């Protein structure tokens, strides 16, 4: 999707998504997609820049409910707006601790600052196509799906053990829809130092790939070299792709023996 700034483009997107294409009625079913312009509303860049008002979106959802239908999808768009407000209230409550290593909960944990590992994540060279494709999309377009953001955050902090603030800063650098409250609020949430009842939230890459990209269409779009191999092997292509930079904390992919892992680390250290 090509984003165009300004209020006119923002209002045009609301009209297109809600009324012309009638996509609001299926938002809840499609919102976890990753490929294409219409799996989600894509309102966030205009909201972040102030070109689009959340109150206007709320009014349009209510009008849609009156004129067409009210269902779980119309509720869910409003629910996402509430999440946006929640992170703003969170930032008011916790202030600068939102940017501290231990986050609002003041969690004591040892984090790595391995620059080679971080650069592999940032550049989309981890050896895990689902991670790499999302990071390529971010650096190329300035956007990433909500599902993708959760997956790459979990991988950076849970599997790589990297300081979550390094990831948050990279998102701050790249995102078209960056704002401090939502970005740092979501990163503290995803890394276990913010308000989350699950203290060790983990996204299994094999499970996420099977659920949200079962035929590898997303990874093949951003990593064209994978398009030539069978669809069921695109997310875990073995020796047909670059070495995996770290083993997963949970979940097997078939490439985690000690020698391969050590070789991947040595190759990365030489970069």
UniProtKB/TrEMBL annotation:
InterPro entries per UniProt: Cry_DASH, Crypto/Photolyase_FAD-like_sf, Cryptochr/Photolyase_FAD-bd, Cryptochrome/DNA_photolyase_1
Residue stretches making up the Cryptochrome/DNA photolyase FAD-binding domain: 78-234
Cofactor(s) needed: FAD; (6R)-5,10-methylene-5,6,7,8-tetrahydrofolate
Cofactor binding, note field: Binds 1 FAD per subunit. Binds 1 5,10-methenyltetrahydrofolate (MTHF) per subunit.
Organism domain of life: Eukaryota
Marked site: Electron transfer via tryptophanyl radical: 111, 164, 187
Keywords carried by this UniProt record: Chromophore, FAD, Flavoprotein, Lyase
Alphabetized Pfam families for the sequence: FAD_binding_7
BP GO annotations: photoreactive repair
Sequence positions that bind FAD: 27, 40-44, 80-87, 177-179
GO MF annotation: an example: FAD binding
Family annotation (PANTHER family): CRYPTOCHROME (PTHR11455), CRYPTOCHROME DASH (PTHR11455:SF22)
Task performed by this protein: May have a photoreceptor function.
Family membership: Belongs to the DNA photolyase class-1 family.
Entry protein name: Cryptochrome DASH
């Amino acid at each position: 999707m090509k984003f165009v700034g300004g209020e006119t483009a923002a209002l045009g997107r609301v009209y297109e998504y809600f009324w012309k294409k009638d996509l609001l009625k299926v938002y809840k079913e499609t919102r976890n997609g990753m490929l294409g312009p219409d799996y989600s509303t894509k309102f966030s860049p205009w909201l972040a820049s102030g070109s689009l008002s959340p109150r206007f979106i709320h009014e349009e959802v209510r009008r849609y409910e009156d004129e067409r239908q009210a269902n779980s999808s119309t509720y869910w768009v409003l629910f996402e707006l509430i999440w946006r407000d929640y992170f703003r209230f969170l930032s008011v409550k916790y202030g600068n601790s939102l940017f501290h290593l231990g986050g609002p909960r003041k969690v004591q944990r040892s984090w790595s600052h391995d620059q080679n590992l971080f650069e592999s994540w940032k550049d989309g060279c981890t050896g895990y196509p689902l991670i790499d494709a999302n990071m390529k999309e971010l650096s190329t377009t300035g956007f990433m799906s909500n599902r993708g953001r959760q997956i790459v955050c979990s991988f950076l902090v849970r599997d790589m053990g990297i300081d979550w603030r390094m990831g948050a800063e990279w998102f701050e650098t790249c995102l078209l829809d960056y704002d401090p409250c939502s970005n740092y609020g979501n990163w503290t949430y995803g890394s276990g130092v913010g308000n989350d009842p699950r203290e060790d939230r983990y996204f299994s890459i094999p499970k996420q790939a099977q659920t949200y990209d079962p035929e590898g269409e997303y990874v093949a779009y951003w990593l064209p070299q994978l398009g030539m191999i069978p669809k069921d092997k695109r997310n875990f292509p073995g020796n047909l792709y670059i070495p995996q930079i770290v083993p997963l904390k949970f979940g097997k992919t078939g490439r985690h023996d000690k020698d391969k892992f050590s070789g991947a680390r040595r190759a990365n250290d030489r970069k």
